[in-house]
Write a structure and sequence with these properties.
The protein is α+β, with helices and mostly antiparallel strands and 81 residues long. The chain has one domain (3-76). The protein has 2 helices and 5 strands; from the N terminus they run βββββαα. The radius of gyration is 12 Å and the shape is globular.
Length: 81
């Protein structure tokens, strides 16, 4: 589970065994978790985050989009999806 970004209380990462899915990132804080598709940016799943926090996470992803996609491409070799 390579961690891509830590921003405040959030850890953004992906699982190494998900190369056949389109680019996405998992986000955790405490016992809450969410999954976001990256292209286009969209919430795929949410377990516990409030709408306000999801908005914060989305802003982080928009601000760091290039970094997150580069990490995906480096790890998996190429963008899929």
């Amino acid at each position: 589970m390579p961690t891509i970004v830590r921003s405040g209380p959030y850890r953004l990462y992906f699982y190494s065994h998900e190369p056949n899915e389109p680019p996405h990132v998992h986000v955790d804080r405490d016992d809450q978790t969410a999954k976001f598709w990256l292209r286009p940016l969209a919430l795929a799943r949410n377990l516990g985050f409030s709408a306000k926090e999801l908005g914060r996470i989305e802003r982080i992803l928009r601000e760091r989009e290039r970094e997150v996609l580069e990490a995906w491409n480096e790890h998996f070799g190429t963008e899929t999806g």
